């Protein structure tokens, strides 16, 4: 079976600070801000867990992207997760998000683009959603290396409307590539 062409599977937003985000027919990305109407849009930190101590820092978590392939892996491990349920704004297919270097630009559809800033670090809310899901989403190998599987965070470089089915073009930054770390 050949890999899927890089594409947007689903889009989601939530005006409130909730763990899951309802899916939508489309979302609008606003340059330098995030998803129009989403609680996490803004130029400075918007996540409640960080805003208290880092309110004046730049918002490097404007858009959350997860690869849909994770949902199939989690299903095989006994979990049921659908687009938007882990709080992502954009669910993708055909892009190895976790393997991309920091600074990678993803062109989403015809207009919008985001720059990957780092890995999403899952919080305890993930276990409140489904017991044991946090352990399934964070793996530690025998050498102690931690693998976070809950997607990447990005900032909006160019605004535009994105919809399920839109293509994704990946543009790597100049070398040397910097691996992703949590933001």
Automatic annotation (TrEMBL):
It holds the Pfam family MOSC. SUPFAM superfamilies: PK beta-barrel domain-like. GO terms for molecular function: catalytic activity; molybdenum ion binding; pyridoxal phosphate binding. Coiled coil: none annotated. Residues 22-171 form the MOSC domain. PANTHER family: METAL-SULFUR CLUSTER BIOSYNTHESIS PROTEINS YUAD-RELATED, MOSC DOMAIN-CONTAINING PROTEIN. This is MOSC domain-containing protein. It comes from Labedella populi.
């Amino acid at each position: 079976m050949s890999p899927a062409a890089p594409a947007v599977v689903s889009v989601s937003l939530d005006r409130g600070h909730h763990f899951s985000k309802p899916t939508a027919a489309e979302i609008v990305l606003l340059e330098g801000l995030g998803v129009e109407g989403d609680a996490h849009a803004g130029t400075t930190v918007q996540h409640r867990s960080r805003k208290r101590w880092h309110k004046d820092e730049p918002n490097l978590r404007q858009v959350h992207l997860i690869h849909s392939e994770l949902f199939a892996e989690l299903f095989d491990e006994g979990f049921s997760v659908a687009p938007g349920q882990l709080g992502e704004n954009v669910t993708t297919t055909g892009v190895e998000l976790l393997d991309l270097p920091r600074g990678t630009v993803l062109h989403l559809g015809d207009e919008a683009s985001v720059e990957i800033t780092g890995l999403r670090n899952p919080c305890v809310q993930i276990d409140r959603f489904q017991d044991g899901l946090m352990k399934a989403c964070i793996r530690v190998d025998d050498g102690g290396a931690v693998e976070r599987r809950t997607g990447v965070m990005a900032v909006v470089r160019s605004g535009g409307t994105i919809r399920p089915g839109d293509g994704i073009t990946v543009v790597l930054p100049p070398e040397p590539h910097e691996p992703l770390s949590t933001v």
